[in-house]
Sequence to fold (418 residues):
Amino acid sequence: MSMATAQAQSSPSAFDVAAVRAQFPALHQQVNNQPLIYLDNAATTQKPQVVIDAITRYYSFDNANVHRGAHCLSSRATEAFEESRKVVADFIGSPNHDQIIWVRGVTEAINLVASSWGRSSLRAGDRVLVSTLEHHSDIVPWQLICAECKAEVVPIEVSDDGIIDMDAYTTLLDGRVKMVAINQVSNALGTINPVKEIAKLAREAGALTLVDGAQAVAHWPIDVTELGCDFYAFSGHKLFGPTGIGALWGRRELLENMPPFHGGGEMIQRVSFEGTTFNDLPFKFEAGTPHIAGVIGLAAAVRWLQGIDRKAATDHEAQLLARCDELAQSVPGLQRLGPDCNRISVFSFLLEGTHPEDLGTLLDQQGIAIRTGHHCAQPLMSRFDVPGTARASFSLYNTHEEVDALFSGLEKIQTLFT
Ligand code: PLP
Fold:
């Protein structure tokens, strides 16, 4: 029996972690002569064998360009590619599959909306609200387009616990606000934001909402219709899928009226020097040869996740976080950032007397992978007056024993500095 399996079997959770872990080859290895404990899931998740197999199968047997070939391989590739769009549409509750636009990830999705919708809709004096919790990818694209349109990016403040100040938000919602761009879960703190309420208030004030679902999709089922947002974006690699692929969902009438983002093949109906006409959704936004293997791998990841008991997985993750918080209380000099409740997956902290970077390196020597730094959330770090934090982030395949190992690791490090 492998060490990882033994650890998982003794987990107090009802969720069958051992069976899940067995499907992830990367988890069963040693790093620095220690069994790997992978706690950097908010950065990217490991991939189950079915995803690796789907990508290998595509490249081994079906590799061809999509949509334009008159041969068997191209038909197979196109069929798998378009079937994947339906899988993803179903996964996030999209009424139609042509409202799913393939993008490289959340970063490209937000750049697409900022560039296409923003450039055609924002006027001088308009405002885009983003929370102080946002990842740089939900700040910088808005800054770029607002600078061009003489509009303004305005932050929504958060409390000392890292919770969006809803009173401050409501006060900001005046006629100048055209877009509210917000993450569903903060990657730096794990705060779960009330995006349904935020979208409702935005709608009542005449503004659109873009929800960055990067840190949410792997943790519970999403229904864009129920959320009431106008755009929703997620990245495949945080969802057990490949890097370089993600999806943007948008309300049909918005997408239909938005100008193209990139120009090139596939996004046109007819090209002439007198004038070019554009393709229908979703192809209008998908210029050039897409990441076909990525799309197929993403659909495999989604199907895999749909085969998991999501409720049991979420409960398991909540137990991991609860254990983490409990153990943290007995570590002298440990300061946790973020709210006590309405938080998922993320344990962001500082340890007195040690720099987060050193913590990361010293834990890595013990086989424990965490993230350190500003987590692409520098405005949030400034809000808390810290240069960065150490962040352990959990996925459904982590075990209680791994949480314990993190704290034994921290204890060892503390003895080095005392
Ligand atoms: N938004 C959030 C909340 C994130 O955590 C991340 C990545 O860490 C992103 C956006 C950017 O995602 P990607 O790099 O996959 O485009």
The first helix runs from residue 3 to 9. The radius of gyration is 22 Å. Residues 105-107, 135, 137-138, 183, 187, 212, 214-215, 235 surround pyridoxal-5'-phosphate (CB under 6 Å). Confidence is low (pLDDT under 50) at residues 1-12.
